[in-house]
Amino acid sequence: MPHPKFSVLAAALALGAVVAAGAVCAQEQVLNLYSARHYQTDENLYAGFTKQTGIRVNRIEAGDEAILERLRNEGANSPADVILLVDAARLWKAQVEGLFQPLKSPTLEARIPATLRGNDDGKGSQWFGISTRARVIVYNKAKVDAALVRNYEDLARPELKGRVCTRSGAHPYMLSLIGAMSEHLGEAQAEQWASGVVANFARKPRGGDTDQIRAVATGECGVALTNTYYLVRLMRSDKPADREAVERIGMVWPNQGSFGTHVNVSGAALARHAPHRENAVRFIEYLASDSAQAYLADGNNEWPVVGTVKLRNRELESLGAFKADTLPIASIGRAQIAASKIIDRTGWR
Ligand code: FE
Questions:
Q1: What is the CA(236)–ligand 1 centre distance, in A?
Q2: Dihedral (Cα; 42, 214, 310, 87), 10-degree rounding
Q3: pLDDT per residue as tens digits for the range 152-170
Q4: How far is ligand 1, taken at its centre, from the CA of residue 150, in Å?
């Protein structure tokens, strides 16, 4: 039996502990993140934020379209604080649908180049590119002469009849590229180019970027388009078959003699009804920090948006340096209206 006095003291201490725990609970710091990214290394990214700020990150991970649908359905009751999406076409669409809210942050403005930020709804709502990827041409080295495919325009050359593969033109990655072509060439000329590409199809568009790369490796397709990180993923794969596929492929940085290679982003935005606005702003600012930038980019073989952050990713670096298109990412997002018309009229589906 404990001494009676000790018991009272112990009870008082225990009560104190309960009260303190209650106070901690009431102030518990959380953040609700809706993310279309799902990479192993993103775990470290979120843990780093919690360690730094004490704010716990609740994650909902889903495909981009599923996230947008969920936000629409939840409306003003949405618990979402931060939204992570990939591709300017989707970010722009979410913005004009009113799913984001304004975010003025000197930190983000200082760290993320203006051309990689989207501010296009006239209400000051913004999204921020957090990593970049390029859309490149791959070709079968044994079957296609590299000199034939130096520019996106080349995909419409008659010499490539029956050799070109792409995923559906309706996919955001294609909408953004076709939109960029429309910005550069004008809508009419971009449409003419698109019909030339469609006339060159080796097969009806199907599958994702990795499927296009594999089909180029087998020779079913002569040339295709892919985002760089899919190619680097195969280069870094521990499956010998993946690396053998890469051996059979050449990669081209398109349009080095003109407007540069099309670049896109994955991006973050403050949700329209964010219940934890302050935490959300801290989180998005954290995404632009050196350590977060390294995790974000390297985890998916992308490039950081913050120029001073350096990666140690041998395979990604082996692709070399290139001239990137400097078209503002917001105008690429907006151009998907023209791109949609082009794919409808040319049957790029
Ligand atoms: Fe992707």
A1: 16
A2: -60
A3: 999 999 999 999 999 999 9
A4: 23
